[in-house]
């Protein structure tokens, strides 16, 4: 009886440690940018009003099988594009770039996820210039 | 008697070589499965980590300060990192400070990382672009 209880306790602790090991991740803040864009913009005479933008997050995620075999590399450009599309703008201001490699357990095999996150305020176009790639003069 | 001793010696030698081979194979497997390398490139039309007057950006394309670049790297010797994690901020700051500018246009941002277990590894952010000073 005592042996069974000990075995169960060992399994529970082992399982807990496994979840801890495979369920961990850390986010590294790699850049705070005042301005960033992947779109064609004319900066010869631009006037950006950060208050008019909306705060959005874009990401590019790639899975690593067993945390070792990468299926690709996340790209900052794609993450920024994702954020700009969500926000409907062409410039991000007060932007934060983070890398968040996390290891987690899906249903059968373990995988690691690397993510390049971009949080910022994409410059929203004025209502007459949606789709235009020029900042509001 | 001599024959028996020689036989024992030969057997032990064989055992040692097998063990050595297994050890080498295990070492090669560990190193091979742990070898890691990745690189990513991002093309940005404009990027800055410096204070820029967003309300009034004026860039004169004829007044470029030239192509500049900056890097921030972390080296891992054996398994000991020589510094903290590298950042894009630092790479950009170095590129901009080199030419006293505050904005990069047509910028390329590269990130690469590799590690050969228990030998050497490197992670780097690199930024390159045409430097400009936005003026009011």
What's the quick description here?
The complex is a heterodimer of chains A (about 140) and B (about 140). Chain A has helices at about 1-20, 75-85, and strands at about 30-35, 55-65, 70, 90-100, 100-105, 110-125.
Architecture overview:
The complex is a heterodimer of chains A (137) and B (136). Chain A is of the alpha+beta class. Chain A has one domain (26-124). Chain A has two helices and six strands. In chain A, strands 1, 2, 3, 4, 5 and 6 form a six-stranded antiparallel sheet that branches. Chain A is elongated. Mean pLDDT of chain A is 68; it is low at 105-119 and 123-137. A five-stranded antiparallel sheet of chain B has the order 1-4-5-2-3. In chain B, a hairpin with a 2-residue loop joins β2 and β3. The chains are: A alpha+beta (137), B alpha+beta (136). Chains A and B meet through β1, α2 and β4 of A and β1, α2 and β4 of B. β1 of chain A pairs antiparallel with β1 of chain B.
Largest sheet of chain B: 5 strands, antiparallel
Mean pLDDT of chain B: 86
The gyration radius over C-alpha positions of chain B equals 27 Å
Largest sheet strand order of chain B: 1-4-5-2-3
> How helix-rich are the residues of chain A, as a percent range?
10-25%
Broad structural category of chain B: alpha+beta
- The helix/strand series of chain B, from N terminus to C terminus, equals HEEEHEE
Structural class from helices and strands of chain A?
Answer: alpha+beta
Mean pLDDT of chain A: 68
How many distinct domains of chain B?
2
How many independent structural domains of chain A?
1
Key attributes of the depicted protein:
heterodimer; A: 137 residues; alpha+beta; 6-stranded antiparallel β-sheet; 2 helices; 6 strands; elongated; disordered C terminus; B: 136 residues; 5-stranded antiparallel β-sheet; 32% helix; 39% strand; rod-shaped
Write the layout of secondary structure elements.
The complex is a heterodimer of chains A (137) and B (136).
Chain A: H1 2-22, E1 28-37, E2 56-65, E3 69-70, H2 76-87, E4 89-99, E5 102-104, E6 111-124
Antiparallel strand pairs in A: 1-4, 2-3, 2-6, 4-6, 5-6
Chain B: H1 2-34, E1 36-48, E2 67-77, E3 80-81, H2 88-98, E4 103-116, E5 120-132
Antiparallel strand pairs in B: 1-4, 2-3, 2-5, 4-5
């Amino acid at each position: 009886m005592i042996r069974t209880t000990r075995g169960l306790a060992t399994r529970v602790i082992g399982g807990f440690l496994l979840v801890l090991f495979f369920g961990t991740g850390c986010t590294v803040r790699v850049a705070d940018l005042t301005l960033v864009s992947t779109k064609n913009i004319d900066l010869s005479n631009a006037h950006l009003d950060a208050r008019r933008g909306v705060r959005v997050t874009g990401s590019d995620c790639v899975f690593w099988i067993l945390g070792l075999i990468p299926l690709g590399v996340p790209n900052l450009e794609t993450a920024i594009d994702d954020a700009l599309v969500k926000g409907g703008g062409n410039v991000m201001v007060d932007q934060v770039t983070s890398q968040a490699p996390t290891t987690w357990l899906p249903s059968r095999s373990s995988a690691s996820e690397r993510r390049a996150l971009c949080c910022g305020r994409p410059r929203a176009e004025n209502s007459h210039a949606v789709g235009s790639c020029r900042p509001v003069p | 008697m001599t024959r028996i001793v020689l036989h024992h010696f030969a057997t032990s030698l064989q055992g040692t070589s097998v063990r050595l081979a297994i050890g080498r194979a295990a070492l090669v497997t560990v190193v091979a499965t742990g070898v890691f390398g990745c690189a990513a490139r991002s093309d940005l039309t404009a990027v800055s980590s410096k204070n820029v007057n967003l309300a009034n950006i004026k860039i004169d394309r004829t007044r470029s300060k030239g192509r500049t670049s900056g890097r921030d790297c972390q080296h891992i010797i054996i398994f000991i990192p020589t510094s903290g994690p590298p950042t894009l901020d630092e790479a950009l700051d170095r590129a901009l400070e080199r030419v006293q500018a505050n904005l990069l246009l047509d910028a390329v941002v590269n990130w690469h990382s590799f590690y050969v277990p228990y030998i050497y590894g490197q992670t780097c952010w690199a930024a390159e672009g045409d430097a400009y000073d936005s003026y009011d």
